[in-house]
Amino acid sequence: MLQPTPVERTVEPPSHGAASLPPITTRFQLGASLTDEQQRFLDHYGFIVFAAVATPSEVARIADELTAIEQRWLAEGRVQVYGIPIFKGEGVDGQPFLQRMPFTSCFSDYLHDFLRDPRFEPVRRVIGEDTHVGDHEMDGLVANRNLNVPGSAYPRLGWHTDGLRDLFYLRAPKRMLNVGLHLDRVRREDGGLRIIPGSHKQGMLGFLFGKPYFISHGVDPREVAVETEPGDLTLHDGRTWHRVAQSPHEGARSLRRTLYFPYLTEHFPLKGEDSKAPLYHHLGRAMRAGKRLSRRLRRR
Ligand SMILES: O=C(O)CCC(=O)C(=O)O
Ligand SMILES: [Fe+2]
CB of 178 closer than 6 A to ligand 1? Predict the structure, then answer.
């Protein structure tokens, strides 16, 4: 069993001792509201996992909806949605495969309704008294499909905090809880989400210079693997340092699908077909193009 590793000096000492909390690998049950213990766990570590919040049939249906949206976007020759680029790579058989799909709830009634299901009320209340579903804000409901094949455009994601985005919007990073639904079984040995527990309590310097953003992928001695089963729901504080580790498996076994729910307390500009790409996505696109080129050159 994993034990919480001692936090670095750059991280503030936690206000509650970890001793009174259940093990860091706990998968909790989501009830009508978060228990005091669940709330303390989230505050202390900066993340929490809820087991099997979606049923197997819902997970299957969500996966099918994503495939249907993918087919539609491929047929239309779409490269972006509302100004946000789609990551397009190759699938297991070399076919075109969309790996980061923004605004998916604008293209599926099922996903649109799913986000509004009453079971998520307790999660929404943790985020704020009054949250709305930002189908058309930021990147909307984002679906990620990490895959490890030679033509993949998105096998992994380097260390980052999501708070950096706030800096692009010219404001200090605020507590922002990311709600992720996980469609696949991912254990530590399968790669997947890694978080530095407690790193949401770092100061501004830790945020900016804790690690080189997105280009560092190394194992951190403080990191924990967030292990999930299909239908699990995770919450993580966007100010934590986190990454997505590449699967050591290849092909279909490496597939890892997640959806990040746009539960927002603030209103952001509504996006539609004539929206333009924000600066950070231009940077991201340039980085991905560079990586694809270097992979291609290495394969020669
Ligand atoms: O795939 C995940 O679980 C996390 C992705 C992520 O950290 C991000 O898109 O900012
Ligand atoms: Fe992130």
Answer: no
